[in-house]
Amino acid sequence: MFNHIFVNGKLLIESKAGIPVRDRGFLYGDGLFETLRSYKGFVFMLDSHLERLFHSLKILKYNLPFDKEYIKEALKKTINKNNLAGKDAYIKIIITRGIHSGELHFSRKYEPSLIIITDILNTYPERDYTEGINIASSSIRRSSIGNPLYSHKLLNYFENIFAKDEAHYNRAQEAIFLTKDHLVLEGASSNIFYVKGNTVYTPPLTQNILPGITREVVIDICNENRIKVRQKKIHYRDIINADEAFKTSSIAGIVPVKKIDRFALAGEIPGGITARLMESYISKVELSNLH
Ligand code: PLP
């Protein structure tokens, strides 16, 4: 069966789906995206993803011919068309500013494009969850604060894929961005947590990081289960000396870390608190599926 892509109101066979070459998403990476996951057809945290997307659209001055309900309907149609109802799917919602008219500023003339891609989910190897993954620090140093663009999921993702490639070269499954003062910010496509004693730590949203949806779910789970969680600046030396560490993202959920650069974490993988959080996360997914 052919995969269909939603492009500006139409469901097109993938080989025929496209956007004009003058679209600013293609020319300048002028667009936003959300990556989501459905579990047995249920899209987890859909409202939160749409909330983050629409917040960014507003801040970054996109003109909007559609609302959240329209996207929800379009998503449902795309999932059904691709026979993914009841299945685990990978979902990508993309909004670009529209076709470039020559003005680089965010003109009111632009009409955004909406593209939705759905596919059967390629899950990560089970051993990532049972044995943990390696993460490698990127050679790119970010500033710690002061660049609000990092709080938006911009199409312009080159820094992230560059870091992923460096990590791949270093036999790591994820890259982390540090500041020049060795503060840990986030992964190339994930947020980063560590555990020391009985407390879970993650960098605050005042740092140059994405407000991850899974990050928020994990903080909620900690609060609901009386696990101490603190949002504070994290130094590289904190994470390499941690009892446990893990990364979070919508596609992969919670994934334990076993090694950071050449430093192997000392404890069991996944550690006790990480294992509890992984279990609670799965329960939360299953519970929201029932609603
Ligand atoms: N940080 C970055 C840079 C990301 O690209 C992602 C997801 O792709 C995340 C964090 C995790 O965000 P979420 O939990 O919303 O998937």
Summarize the structure.
This protein has 291 residues and is an alpha+beta fold. It has 8 helices and 16 strands. The structure holds pyridoxal-5'-phosphate.
Topology as a string of helices (H) and strands (E) = EEHEEHHEEHEHEEEEHEEHEEEH
Number of strands: 16
Mean pLDDT: 97
Report how far the terminal alpha carbons are from each other.
Answer: 31 Å
Bound molecules: pyridoxal-5'-phosphate
Largest sheet: 10 strands, mixed
> Count of helical segments?
8
In percent, how helical is the residue content? 25-40%
Structural category: alpha+beta
How would you describe this protein?
With 291 residues, this protein is α+β, with helices and mostly antiparallel strands. Helix content is 30%, strand content 30%. It contains 8 helices and 16 strands. Strands 7, 8, 9, 10, 11, 12, 13, 14, 15 and 16 form a 10-stranded mixed beta sheet that branches. Strands 2-1-6-5-3-4 form a 6-stranded antiparallel beta sheet, with helices on both faces. A hairpin with a 2-residue loop joins β3 and β4. The longest helix is centred in the last third of the chain and has 19 residues. The radius of gyration is 19 Å and the shape is globular. The model has no long low-confidence stretch (mean pLDDT 97). Pyridoxal-5'-phosphate binds next to α6 and β14.
